[in-house]
Amino acid sequence: MDVSQLAPAQIRLLGIEALTKALGYAGMARFMQQFEMGSGDYTRDKNQILGDPTVEEIFAEIEQMRQEQQKKA
Q1: Distance (Å, rounded) from C-alpha 17 to C-alpha 9?
Q2: How far apart are the C-alpha atoms of 30 and 4, rounded to whole Å?
Q3: What is the pLDDT of residues 49-70, one digit of tens each?
Q4: pTM score, two decimals?
Q5: What's the superkingdom here (predicted)?
Q6: How far apart are alpha carbons 16 and 56 in whole angstroms?
Q7: Spatial CB neighbours of 33, under 8 Å, sequence gap ≥ 6
Q8: Burial of 31 by CB count in 10 Å (0-12 exposed, 13-18 middle, 19+ buried)?
Q9: 28 C-beta neighbours (distance < 10 Å), count
C-alpha cells in the first residue's frame, strides 16, 4: 500500500483499524489515551520557561539541590 497517496484522515483510520485488530477495542482505546496532539510552540515555550542556562549554571543548580537534600536527610 502506498500511504504517500493517502489523506491524513485515511491514514488515521487505517492506524486505528490496525490497532484494534492487534489490541482489541479496549487495548486500542488505552493506547490512544497515551497520546494527545498538543498545541503551541514547544521551543518558544521551553525557552521562556527555562531560559538559556550555561552548562556551568546547570551544574551549579544541581549541586545546590544536592546540598539541600543532604541537609534534609
Answers
A1: 12
A2: 28
A3: 888 889 999 999 999 999 999 9
A4: 0.47
A5: Bacteria
A6: 46
A7: none
A8: middle
A9: 18
